[in-house]
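User: Just a sanity check before I run the rest of the batch. Below are the structure tokens for the first item. I only need the designed sequence back.
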């Protein structure tokens, strides 16, 4: 029997942000709230049409903290894990799902699920990737 993950909000910083291509398909109609937030200790790198968050002690990413509807939570998290290439337990080749402290604009730290680049991907991006200036995607 699989253990259900802790029911935390999800910090989104790329194509899952409101108004972006994957938000409607994966989160539309399945959330109760979203608010601007920051994730410290990570930076963004360009990917092929989407960004990767990579752990870096001095970095900061801007995105949204999304609160998923309780009745849809298990299905939404499973679909996000699939989208992000995560296997059982949230680990995968593209991304890993980890619990991190996120800072909503309203103040106070909140525990949230965050998809970070998996180890091999993070090493490659640090070596040859292009960082997203300003910590926000899409930029401009």
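Assistant: Here's the designed sequence for the first item:
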């Amino acid at each position: 029997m699989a253990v259900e993950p802790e029911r935390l909000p999800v910090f989104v910083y790329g194509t899952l942000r409101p108004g972006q291509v994957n938000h409607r398909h994966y989160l539309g109609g399945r959330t109760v709230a979203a608010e601007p937030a920051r994730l410290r200790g990570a930076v963004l790198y360009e990917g092929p049409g989407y960004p990767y968050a990579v752990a870096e002690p001095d970095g900061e990413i801007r995105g949204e903290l999304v609160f998923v509807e309780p009745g849809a939570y298990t299905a939404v998290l499973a679909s996000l894990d699939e989208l992000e290439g995560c296997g059982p337990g949230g680990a995968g080749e593209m991304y890993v799902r980890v619990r991190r402290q996120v800072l909503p604009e309203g103040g106070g730290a909140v525990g949230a699920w965050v998809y970070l680049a998996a180890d091999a991907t993070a090493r490659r991006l640090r070596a040859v990737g292009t960082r997203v200036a300003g910590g926000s995607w899409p930029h401009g």
